Amino acid sequence: MTVDTTITEVHVELLRLPLPRPMLSGSAGGAGAQPVAHISMPVIFITTASGLRGLGYAWSHMGGSLATRTVLERDINPLLIGQDALNHERIWAQIGKKLQAVGRRGLVVHAQAATDMALWDIKGKAAGLPLHKLLGGIRDDAPIYGSDGGWLYMSVDEMLDAFCAYLDDGMIGVKMKVGHDDVNIDIERVTAVRKALGDDVWLTVDANQMWDYPKSIKAGRAFEELGIGWLEEPINCEDISGHSRLAADLDIPIALGETLGSRFEFDAYLKADAVDILQPDIIRMGGITEMLRVASMAEVAGRPLAPHHMMEVTIQVACGVMAKAPIEHMPWMEAAFTESPDIKDGRMRPPKGAGLGLEISDEAVKQYRVE
Ligand code: MG
Q1: CA distance 59 to 62
Q2: CA 249 to CA 230: how far, in whole Å?
Q3: Is residue 194 part of a domain?
Q4: How remote is the CA of residue 65 from the centroid of ligand 1, in Å?
């Protein structure tokens, strides 16, 4: 039976969700700032003639979500009506062409990514398959590491409480934030955590672009001594040559990519040998379609992938085409969904339902809606 996948209706919402635990990183105010307690979630529902409904969404902490909603409502919605939802590559390219002059990264790309996600959701539902199966089903589940427990406002003891809970759940390791102006503070905090957790625990650190080259070298060498798994976003994400120099001078792997906006930006980092571990964010880089391209690029370049955040969707791509990438456990969007993610013994499985297998109830929309 063929299903009519012509797009007949598009509905956009903006939700504001409470975070399970407040967050504070270098790029979200930095040490000493007030922790962030909410996350914004622009949502797009795309309905087809046969009644299939695709769900897509973006995220942001630090503003811009009202503008993303406007781009979805005013610029993307009119382009979608009447098109076949299965032509998602065509639609992705059309959005890019129409809006590239006003945003090749940032909020325009966030809107493009949310739309792309909803179209993939429809594709899975039309096929009656969970997305990871549609993509290729390279594995049934993926290991996760704990990431919502090492924020800058937390004391060493508070972080250890959170990390031990993660490790008791069987997760493969944990990540903590660094990025103080005085790197000695970070070296002390990481040393204390390492000592308490022991040398065998996989521990990584994330500076969220807070340092320059000299600070990164000093901290990086100390982290090497402490057996830290990777140094994430040490310096400004625009500084490709700076990262290239760092990657050459340090043994600790450099991880980055969450703030890059397309495969072209990843390509520039790869060509400059400026990154060891690629961390694409499915929203910030333009959706599932662009994530698949970067996954291929990583394989060709021989660089491991460790996708950023967005675990509820990333798990589909990770179990579809990524043989080894871990999932970052960040339960930021959980309040929106009807079901909690399937996590057991430190591994996450994609939802069983067709498409993304995710649902946002009308009650949740009412409760969290931003007018
Ligand atoms: Mg990060």
Answers
A1: 10
A2: 14
A3: yes
A4: 20
Q: What is the CATH number of the domain that holds 141?
A: 3.20.20.120
Give 14-35 pLDDT, tens digit per residue.
999 999 999 999 988 889 999 9
Residue 367 Cα to ligand 1 middle (Å): 29
Is the pLDDT at 144 greater than 70, yes or no?
yes
| Residue 272 and residue 306 share a domain | yes
Supply the pLDDT for residue 27: 86
CA 308 – ligand 1 centroid, Å: 7
Sign of CA dihedral 192, 197, 198, 201: negative
- How many independent structural domains does the chain possess? 2
Strands (E), the chain: 7-23, 36-48, 53-57, 142-146, 173-177, 202-206, 231-232, 254-256, 277-278, 327-329, 342-344, 347-349
Residue 162 and residue 43 share a domain:
no
Distance spanning both ends of the chain, measured CA to CA = 40
Question: Which residue type, as a one-letter code, is found at position 289?
Answer: T
Q: Which is nearest to 340 in space by CA: 41, 56, 20, 15?
A: 20
Phi, psi of 342 (to 5 degrees): -85, 95
pLDDT tens per residue, range 234-293: 999 999 999 999 999 999 999 999 999 999 999 999 999 999 999 999 999 999 999 999
C-alpha 133 – ligand 1 centre gap (Å): 28
- Residue-range definition of the domain harbouring residue 122: 7-128+362-368
Which tokens go with 112? 């493009």
pLDDT tens readout for residues 57-94: 999 998 999 999 999 999 999 999 999 999 999 999 99
Closest-CA residue to 111 (of 40, 182, 159): 40
Tokens of 111: 């809107």
Q: Are the CB atoms for 320 and 134 separated by under 8 Å?
A: yes
Residues carrying an active site annotation: 177, 308
**In this structure, which residues have their CB less than 5 angstroms from ion ligand 1?**
206, 232
| 0.85 surpassed by pTM | yes
CA-wise closest residue to 332 among 15, 12, 13, 8: 15
